Protein 1
Amino acid sequence: MKDQQADSDGPNGREIKLGVLNDFVGMYLRAAYEAAFTDFADRLGEDRLRPGYFTILTLIVNNPGISQTEIGRTARRDKSSVAKALRWMEDNGLVTRLRPNHDRRTHLSEATEEGYALQRRMEARGREHLAALNATIGSDRREAFIETLREIVERLPEAGSSD
Amino acid sequence: MKDQQADSDGPNGREIKLGVLNDFVGMYLRAAYEAAFTDFADRLGEDRLRPGYFTILTLIVNNPGISQTEIGRTARRDKSSVAKALRWMEDNGLVTRLRPNHDRRTHLSEATEEGYALQRRMEARGREHLAALNATIGSDRREAFIETLREIVERLPEAGSSD
DNA sequence: TATTGTTATACTCTATAACTATA
DNA sequence: TATAGTTATAGAGTATAACAATA
């Protein structure tokens, strides 16, 4: 039905044919992700961490004593990326890391008072962002929408990465 | 309603609490985008352009004589990013650029035979990717899903970028 | 040997700013 | 002045690989 070769015509009037790009769900996914990302960043203003760092700090606040391996597994980031983020956060007084005696390989992270405070401020802004996003999506569509996103993440790799 | 603090427990058995991250639609969007992106890349194997370059080449194939400004506007990329891509594609024999007499500022791009051939091969792989993605989404949900993504892109910036 | 984490390095993708050349 | 495009540079954001310490 929606196969009207949805062209993009600029202000100059020229119609740009999108061809197969028209069907690329990935392009819509990226555009939506970028829009959501930008909305959150705009709401944070200057008082913020990068989104990836916010994710990590939030995991630490919610799970005091979490290890870097656990953070990486949960946030789906390589341990080296986590290490870099943690070092920055420690240098900036947001987290402290402890090496327990029972296993001195691991580094357990906890948020400092400053870390907790920043996370709370960012979470508050995050909730405003979510309210705007949810208003756009609509409560009637929200669950089905997220469920579809989840299924893409879970089921697509099984089909695709068979080489 | 869905506030059961959907935790993530790793193989070690420890439950990681996601807290507010649980509600972050942006995380699901990014994960889904990355999954789609990876699936496409896996299918392309070595015979490929980067996804952004494929977008540009496809625009050129579908719109011979398109200008760089038009490409940038359609692909939502800065002219400098487009210029870099075009130079690489020209150096690698995929496109040629012409400067018309009526306006010698503009560069109009056309695909070479090699460019057309590569685009066709990539488009074929892209269609396989889309088939897998559409199978995951399901034809009954597809239109509503894409419509939601579109609305996020179109409506969210209006609410968020008011500073 | 396996695991945790660190570091150096590099890659992808993209934008900003200063620029040239045209119009 | 405004527009099209180029170039140098920078900076997220992330991963790979080699490594040290510990188990």
Note: Chain A has six helices and five strands.
Protein 2
Amino acid sequence: MVMERKSKLQSSPSTSSSDHVPHKWLEAQDLLKKKLVTEDDYTWKLGETEEGYEVESLKYIGGVDISFSKDDPSVACGTLVVLDFKTLDVVYEDSSIVKIDVPYIPGFLGFREAPIFLKLLEKMQNGSHPFYPQLLMIDGNGILHPRGFGSACHLGVLANLPTIGVGKNLHHVDGLTNAKVRELLEAEEKFSIDFVSLIGDSGNTLGVALHSSKGSLKPIFISVGHRVSLPCALQIVKRTCNYRVPEPIRQADIRSRDYLRKHH
DNA sequence: GCGACAG
DNA sequence: ATCTTGTCGC
């Protein structure tokens, strides 16, 4: 049997000496990945239920984001918002200024951002808050990731919540390129299809690229985070897109930047 | 060896 | 992520 070896770690953009952190992170990702669920695993329903009072419907969708200070890159603001799925009104908002020492390394975003979001979620009394989200959207990828475990999976597993990963840029993985995606989308456009499956060289479907708004030619990249299937994730994202970026993430982004500006 | 590399 | 002005258009 042939052992396969991967060792394409780059030098850290921040820390001085070569840091051994990614080695432990690789193991941690591998461990967390064993808990990953990539199929639908929830009790609520999506659509309008006709004989509905017996069925819990999806009502509260969370969105998270982090903004960073231009002066001090270690100062950031993490924000959690919860929106009413039907009206897309923000029904809950919480922000927190934090100091982040964990560096950003492509492929390890979860280690940098998830801890902040977990604290914000814990403040909602672990589910006892009436608006505690039934699902979370993360600006970062799910299984569209070098090892199939992006930040959306990371947060989903640790919070034990259904999550959807939404990337604004393609993470080049498994042979996927922007040129290839553009080509596929253009082909589908002729049939009025606004999305395309992202199938890597391995043959695996890692996510979808979606033209989420008419005002932008640039797609967003949706992938399964945790406990939500890709078709379901696509439906949910589509329903929350007033603009290119789905509203839960967009609101978290806007409000975190606002909060940081006012409190720093 | 050189690029590419979510936020 | 952040640095950055105006501009065209609904």
Note: Strands of chain A lie at 60-68, 75-84, 90-99, 135-138, 163-167, 195-199, 205-210, 220-226.
